[in-house]
Amino acid sequence: MKKAGGIFLIAVLVFLTAACAGDPGGNRPVSPLPENLIMLDAGEWPENEYTAGMPHPESGMVERGWIDPEKKYCCIEFSDMTRSKSEQYVEALKKAGFREADKVSEEIGSGSLSVGILLTRGDTGVSLSYLNDLCVMYIKKK
After folding, report:
1. Is residue 121 classed as helix, strand or coil in its secondary structure?
2. Residue 75: in which H helix or E strand, if any?
3. What is this structure's pTM?
4. CA neighbor of 77 nearest in space, from 15, 20, 12, 8
5. If we measure between CA atoms, which residue out of 140, 136, 131 comes closest to residue 63?
6. CA distances (Å), 100 to each of 29, 127, 138, in order?
7. Which of 25, 35, 99, 140 is 20 to 30 A off residue 126, Cα-Cα?
8. Where do the domains of the chain lie?
């Protein structure tokens, strides 16, 4: 079961990383997202029902985020979140009452470490994935 959860976290990271990849030639949008999404403001921590009561990361930059009202989740993408900064944020979430349900890491290429962590608190689940200086957080309410 633990391995399946780890594979899921890596799959989420791969999906979100692919969604962030743009066309280097600039011929198409950075990422086609469904039209029903509520886009969040870049550059600032979003205040909404999903992030209420969660600590704000002390570092990193919110690149973009969205809420999917149909699937009832919030996704936030950060840049400038080194592995150390991401680990510090995970510790802040734990101090705020989140419990680590699963964690998986895999070395990719030469020295890059991909990490996926699943945290829970009450009716809130948080999947946090980071690789190099990119961090993606997926927040889901039951």
Report:
1. strand
2. strand 73-79
3. 0.75
4. 20
5. 136
6. 36, 10, 15
7. 35
8. 2-20+54-141
